[in-house]
Structures are given as C-alpha cells and as structure tokens.
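Lab notebook, page 48
Experiment: co-folding of the full assembly
Goal: obtain a model of how the components sit together before planning crosslinking
Operator: M.T.
Materials (sequences as entered):
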Amino acid sequence: MSKDYVRPDGRLKNQLREFKVEVGVLDRSEGSAKVNLGNNMAMASVFGPREMHPKRLSRSDRAIVRVNYRMATFSVDGYKRAVPSRREKEISKVLSEAFQSVVLVKNWPRSVVDVHVEIFQSDGGTRTAAALAITAALADAGIPMRDLIGGIASGIYEDQVCLDLTGLEDMKGSGDMPILYSPAVDEISLFQLDGLFTYDQFKEAYESSLTGIKGMVEVIREALKEKYVKIREEFGVDDEDVSSDDDMSKEEVQLDEDESSDDDMSEETFEKPSFSAVIAQVDEKSETKKEKKVDEKSETKKEKKVDEKSETKKEKKVDEKPKKKKKKKKSKKSSTELPDVDDEDDSWFTKPEEKEKEEN
Amino acid sequence: MSLLIKDDSIVTPGELIATGNEFQKGNGVFKEGENFYSKLVGVVFIKDHEIRVRPLKGRYYPKVGDKVIGIIEETGLTNWNVDIKGPYRGVLLASNAVKRKFDPIKDDARRIYDVGDIVRAEIISFDRTKDPMLSTQFPNLGKLRGGRIIEINPNHIPRVIGRKGSMLNKIKKATDTKITVAQNGLVWIKGENSENEELVVETINMITKQAHTNGLTDRVSAFLSDKQSKEDKKE
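Observation: model returned without errors.
Model output:
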C-alpha cells in the first residue's frame, strides 16, 4: 500500500518537485542564481570577498560567509511583515554556518563573503531552496569550495514518509527533516528535525533524501557549466589542440607559475590535519620540480629583458621562504637604480614630483 | 589511477578530476586521499602530471610585485587608502608615493593625490595579516590622466594581453589608443577620440566573454578589421 501512496499534489512518496536552476541572473553581483523548486522561488546574490564591516565581526584567520535570508512580503498567503522575523534570522545564521564549512574560508582572512537570498514565492522547504540558490551563486561567483551543497526537506504526512514536502504537507504533517548534504566530500552541513520519527521512518527519510540530493547537485552542476558550454558551442571549439594555439600564452603560463609558489603556503592551512603527511610529500615534489623548471627557463630564454627578470625570479624561488622577502626588497631597490629598459611611451604619466614643481 | 575528465573541459566545485598518486595538485585543485577534486568553476589544464583548474570568474587577490590600477578613496595626512578591487584596501604611504622627502607640515597630501584620482601602483608588500602596501616610486607608475577605465574579470587579463602582448599590441595598433592593463582587472584606455575608446571597450568585452574558447586572436582581428572597413565606408 505504502508504495502506491499518492500525495495531495499527485506525486509519489519519493518523487521530487520540478527543480530548475538558472545562473548569472543578476548583473551587479559577483555571482547569482535563481532556483525554482515546485512553487518555491529563491534568488541568491553573492558579493565579495570584500572588507568586513563592522570590523569587529571579522576573524583574523578566515573569511566569514554572511548569509542574509529574507522572505518577500508577498511570498506567503496574506502579508508577511517586512521586519526580519525571528525565523528569518535563525535561518540566516544556520545557513551561514552550513556554508562556512564548504567554502574555503582561509583563503581570505579578515574579509567577508556576503550572500543575500530572497524568497519570492514559498511553498514548503524554503530553506533548502535558499541553500540550493546559494551554492549555485557561490560557485558562479568563482569562490573556491570543497563541494556543492544540495538540500531536501523530507517529513511525515499521514503516517507516510514523504520526500520534498509542500507547504500543505508541512503544515498538516507530523514531522519535518531538512538536510543539507555535500555528495563528493560526503558531509552533512545542516540537519534539523522537528516532530516524531520512528527509527524505520527516519532511516527511510534519510536515505531517500541523500539519493535525492545527489540528483539535485548534478542539476546544479549542469546549470553552472551551461553558460560556458553555450559560448564554446557557438564558436565551434575543437577540444583537441590546446597548447599549439595562441591560448596558452607565455604570459599566462608565467603568471600561473608565480601564483603557484605563493598559493602553496595558503593551501596547506585549510587542508585537514589528517592529510598533512600527503601534503609534505607533495611539497617536496613540487619544490624539486620548481628548481628544474627554473633551470629550463633560464636556458631557453635569450632575450635580454626576459633574462634579467628570470634571474631575479630564480633567486626568489630557490631561496627559502623567510629569506625570500628580504631578497625581493633588495632586488627592487636595485632596480630603481638601473636605467629603465622599457621603451614604452610614458609621456602620458605625470610623475607626482613634476606636478609639484609645476604648481610651485 | 586514471584521469576521469578530459583536458580543457569545464568543471564545477567538488567534481572528481582524477585518481592516483602519479598526479600533482596545482591551483584550483584539492586532494583527498588519492582523489583530485576541483575547487572552482573553471577549465581543467593538465601539464606534466600537474592538474590545474583555471578559474572563469572570481575577484582579484593581491600579490607582491603586481602592477595595479587603483582609485584613491581617502586621504590622510601622510597616506592614502586606495581601492584596488580586491578583498583588502591598498595603503599608499607618502614616503612610497614621492621620491623626495615628504614633510607633513609643509606638504599637503591632497596636492599629490586627491580623492577620486586614478593611480597605477605596484604592490610592494602583502601578507595574510597586513593590507597590501602600494608604491608609485618606480618608473611608469603614478597618476593616470584622462581616458577611461573599465573593470573586467582579473582572470581574463592574460587573454587580453595575449602571448608576449600580441593581443594588446594588435588592439593598440588597430585603434590607435594607449591601453594600460593592470593585474587587478582594471583597464585604462585613452584614445584620440571617444569612438576609438569605445571600440577598445567593445573588443575587450568580447575577449572576456569568449576567454575560454580557442582561436580568439583570429576572431579579434577579424572583428577589428570588420569594424574598420565599416568606418571607412562611412567616410
């Protein structure tokens, strides 16, 4: 009997509502997403990472993910008061903490990633709809994360375990259990339970939620890729030859290599302690690799200008990290004494001193 | 022990790229056990067993030695706060701004740089605990006068420059403008007239939109020559 049970809106027990994600819907934010989950509609926008205001809320070792969850006044039957309610503040806090665990916050100490989610239409499970919109928006903003987060609210309606409750089922049902889960790293970042579940009911709800979330995350992944794939298709890209084309410009490769030397330091910090052994190994490897690279570089490059640069770079790279800083400063001071090789026309610059002279 | 995703394909955070110990992690990738996952929405780039993910979006993160374009936000007696479009504000001290000695009693900081001025500066020191320190003492740094500024995604700056500056030189030649590209995603353009400047803006917007596609240089030169022939017809 329980398998054929049909819910008020015609769905089966573990059937999800229609789920649609659209990414990059707002122009002025760093990243944005719109999510339609049945009759729910949530829109999220991401700003930052940027300076934290007020300053006292910032942490000196990490960024804060500050979620602001709001429901529009017209999002419910009747009218919702515009003042942030207790419920809205609670969901904001809970979502902030959930996303703090997947966003690689140690990349930008002392700063904040601001996320605003607005619910325009609500029909049960708005906090999971909001979470889905936030993940898509964060990923769209190019913020490094360990994984995407998916979310489903399951519960008990007429003694049946139902997946993805509607507003009606939520009101009349006897249990409600929203879960936020990251499939790739296999972590639960939010778990709330309201009402009474037997052990079997809980197990059923939990397991079907996780399988449902895996499907939802795949939908988000497709939505995130879609806009880039579309542009690629438009210009008929063949994925085969990459290195031969102009794409891999030398400038770009150089830049990237420079980054890697700096990034390694920060990356160590947010890895889990259990992987420290692995990191140590990788570091050794990467160091030897760098030395090799530097050797190759200096041999191949013949131009004077480039040679000078690469030599200074070489010194920097081979030296140990604490020494590095001193060296850098020294090399810069010496560079001011050397005559400038740059043949670029710099007549359009007015140097500050010259301006001073003019004015005096 | 295998690569699960093709080189040059687009990945999302938490997507499994490869498994096995023969690989190394580069930027945009994290490792758990033997699995390599992407941290970002970006393009996979594999070279010498090193897996990297190049971001398609994201804000500028300061780095020592970068040349940036900043907007003066606030002036103090002996320092300026500069907006460099990153998570931290740039600090420009008077001693780093001018070569001669700066005396706060005699000199007025506002006469050197005022609020709203655009400066090209170099980051001379930055770490996780301190805000980036700027300098305008080195050659080719200082106030930028006239022209216009556009903000683009800093990840696409290498594409705008091109291999050894090929793309940038092509645009400069075709439009007869002066262009300064900064690592923080701001581009300063000054041309003979506003039409030329607008053409540059259009071209750069096109590059940033198609940054993850191949054969971009050819398309840009086609675009530029097409525009020029149209202008010639008008005349």
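Interpretation: The mean pLDDT of chain B is 91.
Next step: discuss with group before ordering constructs.
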